[in-house]
Amino acid sequence: MADKCFFCKGKVAQEKVNVDFRWGKDLIVIEGVPAMVCRQCGEKYFDAEVYKEMEKLAKGRIKPSKRLTIDVIKFEHPVPA
Ligand SMILES: [Zn+2]
């Protein structure tokens, strides 16, 4: 994984972040997702495996017929070393 930001060439560092994840029409929030975050512009970079796992979490949840609040899901997948 790159250690420089693609956009501003700033330094990126590994962090756990909350992600607003869009799945179709739905917006869900996944907490504690490991990402590389740019110190300068805040751009987040995700591992392909991490991204796949987020999709799985988004797809796997039971769909409520009506919802007033945003769902928050905890990211529990271990980070690849
Ligand atoms: Zn940047």
Task: Describe this protein's structure.
With 81 residues, the protein is an alpha+beta fold. It has a single domain (12-74), classed as Roll (Ubiquitin-like (UB roll)), CATH 3.10.20. The protein is 16% helix and 37% strand. The protein has one helix at residues 48-60, and strands at 12-23, 26-38, 44-45, 72-74. Strands 1, 2, 3 and 4 form a four-stranded mixed β-sheet that branches. A hairpin with a 5-residue loop joins β2 (26-38) and β3 (44-45). The relative contact order is 0.25. The structure holds zinc ion. Residues 5, 7-8, 10, 38, 40-41, 43 line the site of zinc ion.
Secondary structure: number of strands? 4
What is the radius of gyration?
14 Å
Q: The CATH topology is what?
A: Ubiquitin-like (UB roll)
Cα-to-Cα separation, first versus last residue: 12 Å
Return the string of H and E elements.
Answer: EEEHE
- Note poorly predicted spans: none
> Can you tell me the CATH class?
Alpha Beta
Biggest pleated-sheet summary:
4 strands, mixed
What would you say the CATH architecture is?
Roll
Share of β-strand residues:
35-45%
Decide which structural class fits the backbone: alpha+beta
Helical content stands at 10-25%
| Helix count, DSSP H or I runs of 4 or more residues | 1
Mean of pLDDT? 84
**Which term fits the overall shape?**
globular
The number of domains is 1
Q: Which ligands, by name, code or SMILES, are bound? A: zinc ion
Q: How would you summarize what this structure contains?
A:
The protein is of the alpha+beta class and 81 residues long. The chain is built from one helix and four strands, in the order E-E-E-H-E. The chain has a single domain, classed as Ubiquitin-like (UB roll), CATH 3.10.20.
